[in-house]
Design goal:
Helices cover 62% and strands 4% of the residues. By secondary structure, it is mostly helical. The chain has 2 domains: 1-43, no CATH class; 46-228, no CATH class. Strands 1-2-3 form a 3-stranded antiparallel beta sheet. Helix 3 packs across helix 11, helix 4 packs across helix 11 (193-215) and helix 5 (81-89) crosses helix 11. The radius of gyration is 20 Å and the shape is flat.
């Protein structure tokens, strides 16, 4: 059996073998603590810095379906903040937010097998991590992530493969999900982490939307707009 993530006693809380109050609180940032919780060890400087970059990159992206669902849920049940957050996170699937995991699996398998990017494109009906309904020419978030990875010497085989895929799929833009996956893998993270990062990040964005929804409610207007769109479609 693996060691438990935490142990709780009347006078002590231990997380990953460390004293929560005597060691972690006041020393670790939340990003460092997230890494410790997720992996069992404290991050290197690069791991910490790029987790920060990736969390910031995808926490907020306007009125996407996750935010709309959360706002409409809160409008229907104003006391259910947790339910509204859950409604938003439930949309983290293969089209939005959850795409990074599919990208990570693809990159990890392709690089491990020494596969040619042209072969990957030929065998898949749709390559995850490319194209975007808003950023049709280039995803500025993805470009900045890769730029920082180059500047700080983090780019490796997975970033290189992602760029080679981009050349095969031009003019489709490489989007933020592929950039997140590529950098995480080059930092040594497991592919499963590629979905955890957007979920944690977007939770922060959802909470911001819900705080705004309480101050300036638009949930029922969004519902009405959906009705109008359906009637017009």
């Amino acid at each position: 059996m693996p060691e438990p993530i935490s142990r709780v006693e009347p006078d002590r809380v231990e997380v990953r073998g460390r004293d929560l109050t005597g060691d972690l609180m006041g020393r670790l940032t939340f990003t460092e603590y997230f890494h410790l919780l997720l992996t069992g060890h404290e991050p290197t400087d690069d791991e910490r810095d790029f987790l920060d970059v990736l969390l910031v990159s995808i926490a907020e992206h306007g009125m996407m379906p996750s935010n709309v669902a959360a706002r409409m849920t809160l409008a229907a049940d104003p006391a259910s903040l947790h339910g509204a957050v859950a409604a938003g996170i439930l949309g983290a699937g293969p089209v939005l937010l959850g795409t990074s995991e599919a990208c990570a699996v693809l990159l990890a398998e392709a690089v491990s097998a020494g596969e040619d990017p042209a072969h990957v494109v030929a065998r898949l009906d749709r390559v995850p991590g490319f194209g975007h309904p808003v950023h049709r020419v280039a995803d500025p978030r993805a470009n900045r992530i890769l730029e920082l990875a180059d500047e700080r010497g983090v780019s490796g085989a997975h970033v290189d493969f992602a760029r080679r895929l981009r050349a095969e799929l031009a003019p489709l833009p490489l989007n933020v999900s592929m950039a997140i996956a590529a950098v995480l893998l080059d930092l040594g993270f497991d592919p499963a982490v590629a979905k955890a990062v957007p979920i944690l990040a977007r939770t922060a964005g959802l909470l911001a939307h819900l705080a705004e929804e309480r101050r300036h409610p638009i949930g029922f207007r969004l519902a009405r707009a959906a009705e109008d769109a359906a009637a017009g479609g």
